[in-house]
Structure formats: C-alpha cells, structure tokens
Fold this sequence. Notes:
This protein is about 65% helix and about 5% strand. The chain has about 120 residues and is mainly alpha-helical.
Amino acid sequence: xxxxxxxxxxxxxxxxxxxxxxxxxxxxxxxxxxxxxxxxxxxxxxxxxxxxxxxxxxxxxxxxxxxxxxxxxxxxxxxxxxxxxxxxxxxxxxxxxxxxxxxxxxxxxxxxxxx
Length: 115
C-alpha cells in the first residue's frame, strides 16, 4: 500500500515496495518538520529558546549514528539497523522527545508563575 502515480513508462510509489521514490526521504523530513513546527507554534519564546539549544546536540548525535550505521542489514537473517532505518527512527524520536520537553517545560513554567 502506498501513494502512487503512474507515468507513461514507470510506476512511482511512496512507501510501496514496487518502486520506491527517491524523494521518500524528503517526505519523511517534511513530516517531522511539519509536526515540530506545528508544536512550536503554541509554546512560549523562553521554552523555544531552550529547545533551540537541544537541537544541535541531537543533530550531531543523529549524524553520528547514521554515519556509523551500515548501508545494508547484515547477518544471516538480514535484520539490523540500516542508515535509512536509523534516520527514520531518530526523526520519530526527535518529535517524541520534543513533545515531552515542551510539555515538561510548560508545566514547569506554569508552576513558577503560580508561586
């Protein structure tokens, strides 16, 4: 199952095993960016600035893990992390960690205002 368009000579699909798109990676990045931007729209400037400090460290960690991941899954079963899998999971993890950070810092900020 996937999002497909049919051209004259080939069939192009997003998340379909027939012919994967080259732009699939861009689509993943756009999904992560959209969710992150949607969330940051509703937070205060103070929390946003703290979150901006977190981003470079996470990007360096992600770049290192993607660099160290093998291109192809190894082993007898062909199971294991690949560069693609690591980058997708790190993007998902980034959104989850960001949401948790925003909720935690918002609660902390509201408690400080109530004192």
